[in-house]
Amino acid sequence: MGLVEEAVTIGVCEFVMRSLRPDEYDAIIEECKDYEDIAYLHAYQKAHVCRAIVELNGVNLRDTRFVESEEDDPKKPGQTKTVNLELHTWINKNVLSTWGREAISAAYRKLGEVVGEAEKKSKEKIVFRSPQETDEEKFRRILGEAREASEDLPEDLVVRILGEYGYEFKTTEAEVKAAAERLADVPAPPEPEPEPVAAQPEPEPPPAQTPEEIMRSRQPLTHSIADGRVPQVLRNPPPDLEPAARPLRSAQIADLEGEIASTAPVPPAPAGVTRPTEVATLERKVTPVDPKAIAGIYERPPTGGINPRYRPPTRP
User: Fold this and answer.
1) What pTM was computed for the model?
2) With contact defined as beta carbons under 8 Å apart, do 159 and 171 qualify?
3) Separation CA 154–CA 150 (nearest Å)
4) For residue 50, what are the contacts with CB-CB under 8 A and spacing of at least 6?
5) Where are the alpha helices (DSSP H) in 151-269?
6) In terms of pLDDT, which residue wins out, 4 or 248?
7) Distance separating alpha carbons of residues 247 and 56, to the nearest angstrom
8) What residue spans define the domains of the chain?
9) Dist. CA 107–CA 56, nearest whole Å
10) Which of 50, 63, 65, 64 is nearest to 15 (CA)?
């Protein structure tokens, strides 16, 4: 039960392969346990193939367990003796030893298909109460298999088959290409031309003024230095004055001080005090500052924390 056979032809050799029994799998593992790497792979494939062959060039080997063979007799040099070899050992020694590695690999691959077919047939008439996979897993598996199978089919055939089952593509690849070609032939819309900007009339320059007119237009001074206020002095002369016509700032200050001194009333001197006739000059002593010390103050990295000069406001 559960065994599947399939006829195979490799070159001039015709044979029938079948799926293996459980005890044969155990014997293969025991037989190949002493091999490593590539030697293990080759021995593993040959052990499967030699046990799977049940018919060779028309000879039925299904009920055969041992085969008589001639071997050299180690006790009698030059003479042979008859021995009984197991069927898979005889096939490995007398058949597979004459095959190439590629033929053995092809036979082993075919054996994999035979085993897959045996597994499929074993599940055909068995109904499981608890399915091995959910409906979602089954649906995903079927879609994946359908996609792989459709890769080698023409696109129109795939569309027709899907239509027979009520499915269809929203857009086929040919339709997408045709739409792209039509879009490529459509000319691009012309860019809108910029609207012409109306020329703005240039403003007329103001009439030129003489220096005397500019000085007369200024507001007169209404305060004095004696009151503690600084008279207004024109810092930047108007741009319409030529450099040669601009008055010197020192001359302007001297004229303003002379006007203030001549117009300001002089308070009377107290009794017994003689007013000096000369103006005293106050000199301010400036303490020299080291530039390196200033640079050290400003270039110091910021520090964190509470300002030591901070005093919280007093609450009433």
Assistant:
1) 0.42
2) no
3) 8
4) 88, 89, 91, 92, 95, 96
5) 155-164, 173-185, 211-217, 249-263
6) 4
7) 129
8) 5-126, 133-180
9) 13
10) 50
